[in-house]
Structures are given as structure tokens and as C-alpha cells.
Amino acid sequence: MSTTAVRPVTGNGSKVRVGDRVFATTTVVAGSLILAILAAVAIFLVIQALPALVAKPGQLPGEAANFWQYVWPLVFGTVWAAFLALLLATPLSIGIALFITHYAPRRLSQTLGYIIDLLAAIPSVVFGLWGIVALAPFVQPFYQWLGENLGWFPLFAPPVSGTGRTILTAAIVLAVMVIPIMTAICREIFLQAPRLHEEAALALGATKWEMVRMAVLPFARSGIISAIMLGLGRALGETFAVAMVLSPALVVKFAVLQAQNPNTIAANIALQFPEATGLSVNALVASGLVLFAVTLLVNVLARWIVSRRAAFSGAN
């Protein structure tokens, strides 16, 4: 006599397959594991950072009166470098994405898309070497010209660095590093713009640029903002490229052409951690906690902006 395995039955009478149950359980475990890892990292950072947060004046590196006086120049340098990078990368990313999706021939657009995706796979150390060996000497004469002709403007105030290794050079390197991810997101958003809206604008006599301005960009506005936020998250956490290019110091200044530059949190940790002992280690971990909170806030904000636009189904 043959026996038939009885499958579980759901409330609506349909049978539940074993494969579906295994897959559902696996996804729940994987999602819970991500949350557990994130919570474990946060708890570790908080515990290790507590001694630095309650340290007495003079105990922290640089003879800072308290932790916030120590970390403020690093936070400023991190945000300033990332802001300069986004200022350079945002128009380039949007322009490249528009060219790939609406202007370039199909074969050329596929090639450019492949090159942009390949650019994201280059290690940050290679970008740092490129910034030191090739970019810094190349832009130094231009920096000199800016200092001589526009030195009255605070951003270009002299003395100009003789090596070209400035916060502006680091921002250019960061911009090149975040362009691939920003371009990829913008490209996918532009491709999802309603085709009927584009054709209607062209049928009414609009030029290609007017069609893009009236039909594509308004649809992609929230997606462009999310791409900028994700690029900001990448720029905030970059380490070795910035550490290799900059000649950092614990200063707060907006001048972008001088040899003395504000440092970033990630670069400071990479440079100081091998030789740090005692409370210095706790101070570095505490600065990492600040960077963790800033990066998490940026990513949460980007996710919230994307989720507001239900039409962008690729990120929902």
C-alpha cells in the first residue's frame, strides 16, 4: 500500500510547499542576521567609546579639553571633503546618465554603461595612487593660477600647496569614486521615466532637451536625490584614497588650496590606529562611532526619500 505525504494546508485551503517554507525561513534568518550584526557593531562601538566620551581634559590626543573638541575638526573635514566631491560628481553623474539613456547610440551607450560599472570595481588604493602620482602634479599649476588670480576669495586663499596634495585634490578623487554608483542609479531612474510622457512632449514640438527637462527630470527628482545621498555615504566612509592624498591636520578651514588640510574621520583612524594605545584607541573608536551614526543617518534618509516615490519600483 502506497502512502502519500500530507502537506501543510494554509488558512485559505492552499497547500504550502516545502521549498517555499525553506526559502521563507532562510530569508527571515538572513534579514535578522543583518540586524543582529548591525546591533553588535553599534554596541561594540558604544562600549569602546565610553572611556573617550567621559575622558578628562588633556587625556585625549592633541590635548583636547573633551572628546567633542577632538572630533569636531575630523567631522568638519569629513563633511567638507564629501560636500566638495558631491559638488563635482553630481552634474557629471546626471549628464553621463542622460547621455547614456537619451542621446548616445545603443552600441555606444552599452559600452559606456559597461565602463562606468567597471570603474566602480577599481580599489580605492589605486585611486589614491592616481591622486598622488598623476592628479596632484597635474592640477598644481592650475591651483597656482587660482591662488594668484582669485586669492581674494576665501576658498582659494594662499599660500598654495607646492605639491597639489590638498583637500580639493582629495575631493576630485572622491568624486571619481562616487560617480559610478550615482550614474548607475540615475541611469536606471531615467530609463523608468514614462515613455508616453516623453513621446507626448516630442509630439507637441519639444526639443530633446525640453523633453528631458519636462518629462524625465521631474519624474526622477527623488531618485536623483537618493543617488546623491548614497554617493555621500560612500564619500563619507572612504579611507585610503583620502589618507594617501592629504597632508592632514586637526584644523577647521575652508581654504581648498593650502598644504595644511582638515582630516577626515576614516583617514585619521587608518593613519593613527597602528600606533595608538590606551585612551587613544578609545578616542579613535569613538570617532568611528560618530562616523557610523552619520553614515547610518545618510543611508536611512536616502531610503526614506526613495520610498516616497512608489513609481521607482527598482528600489522599493
From TrEMBL:
The entry's keywords: Cell membrane, Membrane, Phosphate transport, Transmembrane, Transmembrane helix, Transport
Subcellular location: Cell membrane
Range of residues in the leader sequence: none
Pfam families (UniProt xref): BPD_transp_1
InterPro entries: MetI-like (IPR000515), MetI-like_sf (IPR035906), Phosphate_PstC (IPR011864), Phosphate_Transport_Permease (IPR051124)
Membrane topology: Multi-pass membrane protein
Domain ABC transmembrane type-1 as annotated: residue spans: 75-302
Main localisation: membrane
Listed transmembrane segments: 22-50, 70-100, 112-136, 167-191, 239-259, 279-302
Chain's role: Part of the binding-protein-dependent transport system for phosphate; probably responsible for the translocation of the substrate across the membrane.
Family: Belongs to the binding-protein-dependent transport system permease family. CysTW subfamily.
Protein name, UniProt field: Phosphate transport system permease protein
Naturally occurring in which organism (per UniProt): Microbacterium kribbense
Taxonomic path: Bacteria, Bacillati, Actinomycetota, Actinomycetes, Micrococcales
